[in-house]
Amino acid sequence: MQLVQLETRPQPPKPAWLRVKLPTGKTYSDVKSLVRQHRLHTVCEEAMCPNIGECWEQRSATLMLLGDTCTRSCGFCAVRTGRPGSVDEEEPERVVETIATLGLRYAVVTSVNRDDLDDGGSHIFAAVIRGVRQRVPECRIEVLIPDFKGNWEALAEVVEAGPEVLNHNMESIARLYDTVRPQAKYERSLELLRRVKDIDAAMRTKSGLMVGLGEEPEEIVDTMRDLRDACCDLLTIGQYLRPSLRHLPVQRFYHPDEFAELKRQGEALGFAHVESGPLVRSSYHASNQEAAAQTLHVMG
Fold this sequence. Notes:
Layout: H1 26-37, E1 41-42, H2 43-46, H3 52-57, E2 62-65, E3 69-70, E4 80-81, H4 91-102, E5 106-111, H5 122-135, E6 140-144, H6 152-161, E7 165-167, H7 177-180, H8 186-199, E8 204-211, H9 217-229, E9 234-239, H10 256-269, E10 273-276, H11 286-299
Helix pairs in contact: 4-5, 5-6, 6-8, 9-10
């Protein structure tokens, strides 16, 4: 098995298409203040997302449940790894209040991995979904969930709460899983997406891939085929960016034209929508992705 080797030397400069403006503006500051006020975390900050300025200026943020400390140590992720604290059972109420205050019509909620919990935190996801349904019924909700270590009862709890979209990221190709996601399993993630459809055949499922970690083009296509075989509806593809020298190195930067070709190939395989670009992340333009898929379903 070929593994990606860590490097301590600096990476080459990012190409021009990966450079973004520093976040500024009143709306950005307002969103940041609101998140702090409600003692919440966002994946935008914890994962060092390059789109934070653009998204927060549009009053869009991906809220992160269950604290800011993950029980896993993925080779690509900037989120803190360690022993998490106790679960804050009042967190769902504050998340719902934040969504209501922002006036969101589409909300994305994710979490750290909590392998220390029997249910992986599924009851917190379910509580947020139910809370949004009651407090902001016009708001559509997408959840980006962990694999719950294969606890399918935990998965069912989230699905049965009724999000519009259930997202679980594959992140990478099968050959690189031992390095990129050492505590995850490629087949388990595919099984999770398949099981969502077994519970609710009408629920839209979504997944995401990073490129630039040493995968071959045909391996990306093979992974897209695996996702379609699992009846995955929506796909995001973005460039991996190294958070620090402690993380996996970037093997190469993909050109925007290559992302356009990946989008074409994904749509040819039957995805309802593929969001593919250098700065694309799981929740980037998430409402537009879901709306495009919904329109395609109606037209079909």
